[in-house]
Amino acid sequence: MVRLLGRSRIPSARRPPAQRAHSRDSRVRRLAHASVDGGGREPGWRPLAGLRSALSGRSVAGQVFLLQVVIVLVLIASAVVALVLQVRNDSTKEAHNRSLAVAETFANAPGTREALSAPDPSAVLQPRAEAARIRSKVDFVVVLNTDGIRYTHPKPDRIGKKFVGTLEPALAGKSFTEEIVGTLGPLVQAVVPIKAPDGSVVGLVSAGITTENVGGAADRQLPLLLGAGAAALALSTAGTALVSKRLMRQTHGLGPSEMTRMYEHHDAVLHAVREGVIIVGGGGRLLLANDEAHRLLDLPADAQGQDVAGLGLEPHMAELLASGRVANDEVHLVGDRLLAVNQRPTDLQGEPSGSVATVRDSTELRALSGRAEAARERLKLLYDAGVGVGTSLDVTRTAEELAEVAVPRFADFVTVDLAPAALSGDEPETVMTLRRTAFSGIRKDAPLYKVGERIDLVASSPQARSIESGQSILEVDLARSPGWRAQDLERSAQVVEYGIHSLITVPLRVGPLVMGVANFWRSDKPEPFDREELALAEELVARAAVSIDNARRYTREHTMAVTLQRSLLPRSLPEQSALDVAYRYLPAQAGVGGDWFDVLPLSGSRVAVVVGDVVGHGLHAAATMGRLRTAVHNFTALDLPPDEILGLLDEMVSRIDQDEAEDGTAPITGATCLYAIYDPVSRCCTVARAGHPPLAVARPDGGVEFPDIPAGPPLGLGGLPFETAELDLAEGSRLVLYTDGLVEDRERDIDDGLELLRTALAGADTSPQGTCQAVLDALPPRRTSDDIALIVARTRALDSDRVVEWEVPGDPAAVAQARADATRQLAEWGLQELEFTTELILSELVTNAIRYGGGPICVRLIHDRNLICEVTDSSHTSPHLRYAATTDEGGRGLYLIAQLTQRWGTRYSPTGKTIWTEQAVS
Questions:
Q1: What b-and-e string marks burial along 323-335, b requiring 16 or more CB atoms within 10 Å of the CB?
Q2: Residue-wise burial string across 521-549, b where 16 or more C-beta atoms lie within 10 A, e elsewhere
Q3: N or C: which end of the chain has fewer CB within 10 A?
Q4: In the prediction, which pLDDT does 44 show?
Q5: Cα R_g (the chain), whole angstroms
């Protein structure tokens, strides 16, 4: 319309209104003059001659005819090509979508993940996969393990072989599709991960369709498309000829000047109508806007030719005009006007080359549109709450998500108050004392209770009434709510003065359980909350309450498991000089296991290292493990050898099994344990085990061995004694104790695991920490279905100049010599401050050994972290600490020793006993 027959004109909409009016009047006058003199036809004009002129291309109709024929030809050819490409693209896309849908459906089908753990996954999954393949009309459904080995395949001879395709994205937890050449030929396939409850990938499912079945639709439809195109070309050519003939007849042979006058007439009509007309080109540039469009949209005078995005329109209006999409009576708020917009693209054959929009003022529809928009926003809010609330199993975070999703779209401020019991995971018995858990608002300076503050509700407050009744409370005007103001008179006055004027309180309730309240406050919007908004708040809180309750339940279970786990395992290792110890503990994926370990200092600078494993999982196994560890602590205080310790544990487990059987609960089927005592003075390690995996010893020269230690029966079986083995260890040797979860699982035999452990220890860093890391790197657990406890202890040896030992004759006169020898040795060690107490200790112990024991009598002093004094005799009678009566001449020696030393005790050996004491070295 702007350019016709090579003649360019400036649209009249660009000219000032007065000039446009004058131009319209002159065009009307010229058009009327042309009508009077017969439309400017030449004398002797004939219709037949005009038709020949039109077809010859010299007239406007002829040019239109030729141009339309070419355009139709190009459009038909383009349409045929586009349809062929579209069919092929749609077929391939359909193959991608179908294969992905089938793979995801099969991967998430009940029993698929459990079947991967079956002894023969192919036997379970192959018939399911074939049935799924036949029903879904795909060419294959293949189940793989994480190494890419097939469990199923349409051709059974390919089961167990390596999968052809990309697995890395699926192993990372993402579903994807690809086009490859597989064992069935060129195909489109999807690979979907099978995930365990904790999110780890345990297997893969691939489904696909071969290219032979994907393609072919376009090739089959090509003859039909070509035939239809030829027919369309013939019909369009004939139609174009008819249109050209009709154009010649209707224009009466008008020439360019007459056509220009016709355009001016239509231009005048266009600007005279009381409806805005806007024409936008394919590039988003404004081509034409009439006077009414300028007025309604407040367009600048030079708007034509500019990008609609740069005209200062409302964003939604600019987006609509630039998109070129179809619009039917869409209502848009522009300034203070409510405009109804209709829009149609100007070219529907392909990508739109532009659009024509009409705009009319429909301000009276404002109220209706406002209500519809409010309803849409409320639905959007509920949807966002369903998606955004409950993304984690944390009670506080879930409450924060509820507060955040409602601000500022629904309320200006949102607070969530929960009972302290709910925050810790328990079911609150009373909810009259709350704690501010979450706050969100358009500003941070609101005078409401801060997060973390305790709130003691008064009975008249809306929150208390809401909790008591289980119903929501709407306070339209807080300034006139005495019940709410009674909660905190000073703070309530500050809230009202701040501008908060309306409140909705909704109880956070799941069934009969009430966990707290959610409060919605309004300040900026002058209108108070209404009943419709109350219903929306109830729906919003009802959805969030379920998520908060789920998080509360998880918090309770998690707290119980964490508390139990922390109470059963060592929180820190004791300080000692015999061993340099490092450890790792890897819990199972689910539940609480029964693996445990401990490091226990003994007398004489010795250290006991123990590791055990209770069969089974769950709280029952963990509780039994805790009882065993406590028992080991108590038995270790007796300073017994390892075999006797295991014997006492075996008897204890038998009693536990018997008690459980009498209660009717599931009995413990047994436990394993390995107990080792290392003496840094003799560098001897005494080991006993009860059904536990063998101890590994890494020598300083790099050699690794598993010493032959009698296995013994697991704890709880009873009837058989335990045996010990003594190992002479060079300083710097590494003792490696572990549970069976490290070296054995469903896919790896224990012998293979021990060999991997040997290899890892041979090439590992000699430090305990480095050894732990090297072992875990070499033996990564495929599936942590069992706990793993790993302890690496590097041996140390006390220097010979820190240990002295001598025999004492069985003569009371030798006591003085023993004191003198001890005093001299303490002076060499620089421990003169301990001379007096050491003389008293040795006097008492040596005197008792001479009087009540038997020879030989031996005294040993050890300078370690503490000063250790040991007196050994051949008697098995142990002295006892007691209070001497006022008339007794003796009996106070051991009492004095207990007061002067940190610890003292007695340990027994096959040849006698040793009484030892420890004094702190400053």
A1: bbeebeebebbbe
A2: bbbeeeebbeeebbebbbebbeebbebbb
A3: C
A4: 39
A5: 46
